[in-house]
Amino acid sequence: MQNANTLKNASTLSELKRLADQKDYFKLAAFFETNKSGLNDEYRLYFSAIIDNKFNRNEDCIAHVDSVVNQYPGKLPGKEMAVLYRSESDSYFKASRYRDALMADSNILLHFKSSITKDETEDIGNDLKRLDALRNTPPQQAEIGKPLPITWKRDRIGLIEIPFQIHGHSFDAIFDTRANISSISETFAKQLGLRMLKASYNESAGITGITFKTSIGIADSLMLGNVLLKNIVFQVMPDSVLYIAAIRFRLNIIIGLPVIVQCREIRFFRAGKMIIPENPSKEDLHNLALDDLDPVILLTTGTDSLSFHFDSGATTSDFYVTFYEKYRKEIEGKATKRTMEFGGAGGSQKKDVYVLRNFHADLAGTPVILDSVTVLTKKIYPGERFYGNLGQDFMANFSELILNFRYMYIKGVGNEKNGMVKKVFSGN
């Protein structure tokens, strides 16, 4: 007969696995911290590695995976070993250790292929093409000098652009926190003299989910305000993919998350300035995570805590089908149903949506109000877990927004939209 401790430990393990599968990283970290003493060593290391990876503690993640492999061989099922190696590969990539990332992903296909799905196998195979091309590329580095205000602006479709310099020439690039890798058109890659690598792999385009072929180029150095960046990886995309035909607008250069994270902290001001301080400021908010190379932030509405993607490259916010399903009754009673066209890099698609007015939430104690939010009724991609994608209308709530990737938090300052945060949704 099982004793109480055995049942409690099984329940703890089951809940940790559920939270990890749901990508509820903030609750996962909190629950693990409270209950980790009840786990055996291999599972304590397993969840430590996953959580460290999600909160940008990459060297800790790598060390924990290596401990499982070396100290507890054969203790974890194949599926969980595949998750561990995938987390390790992601941490290696974030640390610009491309050859090590290549080996971690290769280990999954060599030893645990039978434990993963066909889609996962295809994703890993696609990533291996990119990593194989990058295997001899030196690590990306950032040298941060004394703070220098950087002026940002919006282009004619409302995207945030920031200036940077390369080879003595100045260019404007879109500032996009949801670009997994910095991107550039083939024409501009030639103009900037990027060093091209032999690679061809699949990439997808944001909310449309459209896929296309892309390659890789390396910028040996570029200046972003007071930051000297070296060995910057760009995915080089066909000009046609970065051309939005419906509005005759061309995207040329996109600065993505790997560069943004290297800055450690960015203070973004609504008045048109941004500052990258030499030393990040420490706060104990812990409301920012990374789902692979997607930033995730925590909002609360009423008694609910919800995880959202954060996308500075989107002018407005969109809520996913996860949000729709959780609050379906209230949405259908309050929101307006429409068919809308969504466009971006790669093309456009029409989707059935609801338009929700006056969504109220809270970011680390500061009120957030979104005046009009699109709620999708179908998934963009399989395995979707988050509640939505927060864009520039979210950022506009604050006179200053602090993005800190050293201590993993996001903080809004100076919200002029006064009023109490309301419990708008009650959920299921």
The span between the termini is 36 Å
Shape: globular
Second CATH tier, the architecture of the largest domain: Beta Barrel
Number of strands: 24
Account of the 3D structure:
This protein has 428 residues and is of the alpha+beta class. The protein folds into 3 domains: 40-134, Alpha Horseshoe (Serine Threonine Protein Phosphatase 5, Tetratricopeptide repeat), CATH 1.25.40; 141-275, Beta Barrel (Cathepsin D, subunit A, domain 1); 288-413, Cathepsin D, subunit A, domain 1 (Beta Barrel), CATH 2.40.70.10. The chain is 31% helix and 35% strand. The longest helix has 18 residues, at 4-21.
Which descriptors apply to this entry?
globular; nine-stranded mixed sheet; alpha+beta; 428 residues; Serine Threonine Protein Phosphatase 5, Tetratricopeptide repeat; Cathepsin D, subunit A, domain 1; single chain; 3 domains; eight-stranded mixed sheet
